[in-house]
Amino acid sequence: MLKKVIIGLVVAFVAYFAYGVLTTRSHSPLTTTERSLGDLTVSVDYCQPYKKGRLIFGEEIEEALVPYGKYWRLGANDATEITFSQDVNFAGESVAAGRYRMYAVPYKSKWEISLNSQLGEFGYFEPDYALDVLKVNIPTRTNPNTIEQFTMTFDTDSTSLYLNMGWDTTMIRIPITKE
Is 150 in contact with 27 (CB distance < 8 Å)? Predict the structure, then answer.
């Protein structure tokens, strides 16, 4: 009898875990945002979690979903990846054309945004920091309206693309220009 109970518990646990894995994309859907400026194209693949009444950015002691000073994959599920069709200047730093893992370490007044050459990883796991190709500090801005779902968008002017990220009441804007 004990053997049947243990087997039943194992089956229930595996089913619950499988259900969570199979439905997680509907909770934080995978999306791609892309923009071109002349012959430069930049695209970002990321998963979009929802606020759902939670404290998003804050101190770990406050049980913030994204604690200040800690690694964040810039979304949910898979690691966020950014692709540049040609060499660019990313927030003042030169970056070769290609695909990179992009992650952040958020703070109240700035986010450290890093590009890393380690690709194809599940985002929950921190990257190999030795493979970082750049790290930049981007000041945060406060949005008067709450952004329910983590969102990345692009806008342009005559010379630059801007990658905008926003969630809850926090936003950042990263300038990207051709090298």
Answer: no
